[in-house]
Design a protein that fits this description.
With 135 residues, the protein is α+β, with helices and mostly antiparallel strands. It contains three helices and three strands; from the N terminus they run βαααββ.
């Protein structure tokens, strides 16, 4: 005899995508990821598209992958998806050495990171994005 699984009707619909081994440090990724949390997916992609940072292309790919997962695997409505969570973590660090004067060597640190994007589907839109400084 096994227990029946309870199906929670109020459970929030979420989908995630992980991008491992992005060639950037966590310190450079965190401000970009903090800027897209809580926004609708199309607005987050638009904001990343007009950012001047090099790494936003990789973050856009990760959001696009999560969007495709939501649409194809879970049949969510892509117009109602928002970025629920976006965070990054440290991965490997490649260490190289650069020759310097008098036979010395200086280290070159090449960090890698992983980015996780979690999207959730909302039934109603809670708050529209405010434009400008006055709410």
């Amino acid at each position: 005899m096994s227990k029946k699984k309870k199906i929670d009707k109020n459970k929030e619909k979420t989908v995630r995508s992980i991008n491992n081994n992005i060639r950037s440090s966590v310190r450079k990724l965190n401000p970009i990821l903090r800027g897209i949390v809580g926004k609708k997916v199309d607005i987050a992609i638009r904001d990343l598209q007009f950012s001047e940072k090099r790494i936003t292309k990789e973050i856009r790919k990760t959001i696009g992958s999560a969007l495709a997962n939501a649409e194809n695997n879970f049949q969510y409505d892509i117009d109602n998806l928002i970025v629920k969570e976006a965070y990054c973590g440290k991965k490997i660090v490649m260490k190289r050495f650069r020759p310097r004067a008098k036979g010395r060597a200086a280290p070159i640190i090449k960090p890698y990171s992983s980015v996780t994007i979690i999207l959730s589907e909302t039934k109603k839109i809670k708050k529209m994005e405010s434009h400008g400084t006055k709410g």
